[in-house]
Amino acid sequence: MILGHKTQIEILEKILNQEKNNFAFLFVGPEGIGKKTVALHFFEKILGKNPLFHPDFFFLKSEDGKKIFIEKIRKELIPFLSLKPFNAPLKCVLIDDVHLMTLEGQQALLKTLEEPKGKTLIIVVTHLPDLLLPTFRSRLQKIVFFQPTKKEIEAYLNKMKIEKTLLNEILEFSFLKPSFIFRFLENKEKLKEKKEEIFRLVKILKMPLFEKFIWAKELSKRENLKEILGLWVFYFRKLALNEIEKKSISERLLKINEVLSQLDDLTFLISFDKINKQLALETFFLKV
What we know:
By secondary structure, this protein is an alpha/beta fold. It has 13 helices and five strands. Helix 4 (103-114) links the parallel strand 3 (91-95) and strand 4 (120-126).
């Protein structure tokens, strides 16, 4: 399902209708707003079926947030692109979270982008384009995606005849992210879990330091820690926006911005495999 992005879809349709053999796009925009969904939508139109089950489709993504190494590019992706399409007009490639590709991997793929073989459509997706090599970015046609507006989301949910109380909760706890919205609609327990994660953080921040450290140990063991931190970031950004709308710089806004800054640091730290997550969480709680 696609929520929003009408302009981006129209632009892509015009470009793909051009008589060219090769297309390479960089989809840029915030996490969880449907960039990958739009890419898969176009691949399905071209291939005539679910691309994940088509021999002319190659999907490259990070495993558990880890780096995408050059071996994947050299040994799998480049050989795939060197072959003619099996029964489709184009060889199709989707690379999700391309910012996790090593610089060596980007350099290896760069030559293919500069001198493409055969008929190809390559779409790479990221919310952190600045982590890509400038030369790599320059070989891709950038399409910028934006978060759907509250009005668009309300219209979508009203069409589905969502009960008013549930609709308001979805709007509040999805932070207007389509990925959250579809997850909540599919399973209401997910909405309950998100609410609990946010309320837990608010409680933790009010606890004595020794209790915060107990929670640091508990949270460090969570496999979905990155997702939890992302949820906290969305929550505090929403609080910051609410304060900004008051058109005054308050002490509360400065505090919220400090928490956001520390959350950004914490999220960056736990992206490293060998980092002591418990220590990183304890440091975060000490500072906020």
